[in-house]
Specification:
Shape: elongated
Largest sheet: 5 strands, mixed
Radius of gyration: 18 Å
Structural class: mainly beta
Distance between the termini: 53 Å
Number of strands: 9
Helix content: under 10%
Strand order of the largest sheet: 1-2-7-6-5
Strand content: 35-45%
């Protein structure tokens, strides 16, 4: 039994997709993701190596948050890999989100291959102190 409680990186996994869902020949990978909760929001950090912010699509529909990131294969055509720790491909990940999240107040920013999402909670869902009279 492993008693080490430190966080360990899970291996990158290819996402299984049905043939009719995708029209491109690239593999889709499940990006490594960290989620943190504060009283105000959920904070999501997702690794999307090789993806630029103009090629990231974040959608929220029926409490399902979906992130898709596509690499630009033309950027890699003239390069010859000497060493690579990740495979060339696109990324896809989705999460079921509770009603506590306000879908109109989701913020997203991309910085050096990491997507940062802030999913703000609805005001009525935030903990608050009740005064006793």
């Amino acid at each position: 039994m492993n008693t080490d409680k430190s966080l360990q990186k899970a291996p990158t996994q290819a996402v299984e997709t049905k043939a009719e869902e995708r029209t491109q020949q690239f593999k889709y990978f499940r990006p490594d993701t960290d989620i943190f909760e504060t009283t105000e929001a959920l904070h999501v950090q997702m690794d999307l190596p090789g993806v630029t912010k103009d090629r990231v699509k974040v959608t929220m529909e029926k409490n399902r948050l979906t992130v898709e990131g596509e690499i630009d294969p033309k950027r890699y055509e003239p390069l010859k890999a000497v060493y690579a720790e990740y495979n060339l491909g696109h990324f896809s990940r989705s999460f079921q989100v509770s009603n506590q999240i306000d879908p109109q107040k989701i913020e997203a920013k991309m910085d050096q291959g990491v997507l940062y999402l802030t999913l703000h909670k609805r005001p009525e869902e935030k903990p608050h102190q009740i005064k006793v009279a």
